[in-house]
Amino acid sequence: MAGCAARRALAVGSRWWSRSLTGARGLRPLCAAGGVGVFPPAVTTTTRRHLSSRNRPEGKVLETVGVFEVPKQNGKYETGQLFLHSVFGYRGVVLFPWQARLYDRDVASAAPEKVENPAGHGSKEVKGKTHTYYQVLIDARDCPHISQRSQTEAVTFLANHDDSRALYAIPGLDYVSHEDILPYTSTDQVPIQHELFERFLLYDQTKAPPFVARETLRAWQEKNHPWLELSDVHRETTENIRVTVIPFYMGMREAQNSHVYWWRYCIRLENLDSDVVQLRERHWRIFSLSGTLETVRGRGVVGREPVLSKEQPAFQYSSHVSLQASSGHMWGTFRFERPDGSHFDVRIPPFSLESNKDEKTPPSGLHW
């Protein structure tokens, strides 16, 4: 579709929605909590429609923030593209794309070949497929209301000083898969509230989208490329619970006459069924090239035991791991509980921890 028939009005109130979107077609108004209103494709007579006051909670004010565009089936979104996250609901803007290798164990061959894993973890042979992700900024107004996240997403760096365990983060920086982008346009010259928006992007009404990269964004991307780069994504589904893992190498530090290598890993849990389940336990196995194998068990993740339901089907969090070796592997299971009290284990796809970056260039964070 093209033109007016393909555009939908988008409205936002005093706080963000508490429900998720599942795609661009068949969307319904989301207005019960004074959040975003998304009109279904049938509303095509005008390019903009506002939610009626009877749908609005008492004292809540809805404001139009933009007009939906047709999601791209092919090709990439450009720097400056505004979007809604289809799962977590926040507003954001694309900074630049990453071409990742997606290892999806759900589409592995029916007669898989066994491979020898240094961790001793026999598994399917999974071939990576190129998949587009985007580095994005999250609108700060929406961060407090993303209830399906353990915290506002951030990119963490090793601090560039003698404290080998010190980390610092740039909040409101995220990685988003191509299919999670719901693009929209806005007439606002500063449509996203983030401290880096105007430092990275310049409004240019002659361009489409009308936000172009400043030299500061290009310089920051180039200088921090080794520490920002998303290269591998691992995915596996067990009993309709899909686990996606993205590891990031953070660098090496010296501590007590030894080298310590650091990684961050981001995990997204998605309930693809309508049954409610709750995460209760985690069980990790961490293999180091030095020959050590560590087992970690605990309640929940990052201090929470998230419930995955039809209304809130996903949860995402980030954590860190360090090894006294330049590479290793991680794998494990999450234990979930059903409403009847029964439990089942969900596999965490095995993923490598690699340190093939240039150590001569330490991460610079926000410094240019």
UniProtKB/TrEMBL annotation:
PROSITE patterns per UniProt: APAG
Taxonomic superkingdom: Eukaryota
Domain ApaG per the UniProt entry, residue ranges: 235-360
Keyword Mitochondrion among record annotations: yes
Keywords of this entry: DNA damage, DNA repair, Mitochondrion, Nucleus, Phosphoprotein, Transit peptide
Classification via InterPro entries: ApaG_domain (IPR007474), ApaG_sf (IPR036767), Hemimethylated_DNA-bd_dom (IPR011722), Hemimethylated_DNA-bd_sf (IPR036623)
Entries under SUPFAM superfamilies matching the protein: ApaG-like, YccV-like
Pfam families recorded: DUF525, YccV-like
Predominant place of localization: mitochondrion
CC per GO annotation: mitochondrial nucleoid; nucleus
Protein's GO biological process: DNA repair; error-free translesion synthesis; mitochondrion organization; negative regulation of macroautophagy; positive regulation of mitotic cell cycle
Cellular compartment(s): Mitochondrion matrix; Nucleus
GO MF, one annotated term: DNA binding
Function (record text): Involved in DNA damage tolerance by regulating translesion synthesis (TLS) of templates carrying DNA damage lesions such as 8oxoG and abasic sites. May act by stimulating activity of DNA polymerases involved in TLS, such as PRIMPOL and polymerase delta (POLD1).
Quaternary assembly: Interacts with PCNA and POLD2. Interacts with SSBP1. Interacts with PRIMPOL; leading to enhance DNA polymerase activity of PRIMPOL. Interacts with POLH. Interacts with POLD1; leading to stimulate DNA polymerase activity of POLD1.
Protein name: Polymerase delta-interacting protein 2
